[in-house]
Write a sequence for this structure.
């Protein structure tokens, strides 16, 4: 039987715990370049999913589905923020990122069993050690 941990009154299952850990590892791996993909700033870097992690679960922890963006380009720029429905960001993405491989993989059904999650965790950890 799977053990459950309590955290601030909430029950955290092992599967939820590893998903949270994978999210953190994915974010660190995406920010490895150390600069914003749009402006090359090194300040306040965020990891952004190109294809949303909710709609495209197969790409949730795929590092190729991530962009390292400064907080300005990630959240605040009216011209280039992906979160402001910016046509400018889509144009930048089309000009600067080849999404062919991601397009092919985004419809795959993800394997969310514990073994697969542990393997993905090891893959991200190895990437971060390079």
């Amino acid at each position: 039987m799977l053990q459950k941990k309590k955290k601030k009154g909430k029950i955290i299952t092992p599967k939820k715990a590893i998903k949270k850990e994978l999210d953190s590892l994915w974010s660190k791996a995406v920010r490895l370049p150390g600069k914003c993909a749009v402006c090359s700033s090194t300040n306040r870097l965020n990891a952004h999913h190109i294809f949303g992690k909710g709609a495209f679960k197969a790409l949730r922890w795929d590092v190729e589905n991530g962009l390292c963006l400064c907080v300005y380009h990630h959240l605040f720029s009216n011209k280039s923020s992906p979160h402001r429905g910016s046509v400018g960001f889509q144009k930048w993405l089309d000009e600067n990122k080849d999404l062919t491989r991601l397009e092919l993989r985004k419809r795959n059904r993800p394997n969310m069993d514990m073994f697969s999650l542990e393997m993905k965790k090891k893959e991200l950890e190895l990437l971060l050690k390079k």
Observations:
- The chain has a mean pLDDT of 86.
- Residues 64 and 70 are 18 Å apart (CA to CA).
- DSSP finds five helices and four strands in the chain.
